[in-house]
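Following up on my earlier thread - several people asked me to post the actual chain instead of describing it. Fair enough. Here it is, all 174 residues.
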Amino acid sequence: MKDLTKLVLFMLVLMMSCKNDKKVNVTNFVDSNSSDQKTGVSVIAGKHAPVFTPSKLPYPFSSAVQVGDILYLSGEIGVAVEATGLVPGGIEPETHRMFERIKATLAQHGLELKDVFKCTVMLADMSEWQAFNKIYSGYFVPGRYPTRSAMGVSGLALGARVEMECWAYNPQTN
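Reply from S.P.:
Thanks for posting it. Predicted structure:
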């Protein structure tokens, strides 16, 4: 039931992020002036298909996907600059490096941390929550913290101590 609820909420957010409802007839990538049109598909004009930003890491995921006015960032961990593994030292250096990676992804889209409105944090050990919070709070303006969920998990990629995914507001022009 929880998975169904999450799916319904996700679909609702996706539907709400698209705002233009003008219908246009599109036909299998065939020029609309062509007489070769056989089947048509009705799509919503002004609604942009998702735009995928490939990850620079050698793994099968996108670092971000733009859907409507929302940029969804994949979870980031404290991968070293050389991408040879995690930065050494535990939760503090991993958190700082994770934020540097998030800021770099946002910058690729002309955004900053001030554009982030939702974060999901996964901690390998909830006893490190206070240490994480101390660092996290330094990256955002007090009073303008994104909404956030934090949870303890039994394991993260590459043995990371922390992972965070973000949603950012990135208005699109039609």
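The beta strands are 23-26, 41-44, 51-54, 62-67, 70-76, 116-123, 147-152, 162-169. That should answer part of your original question.
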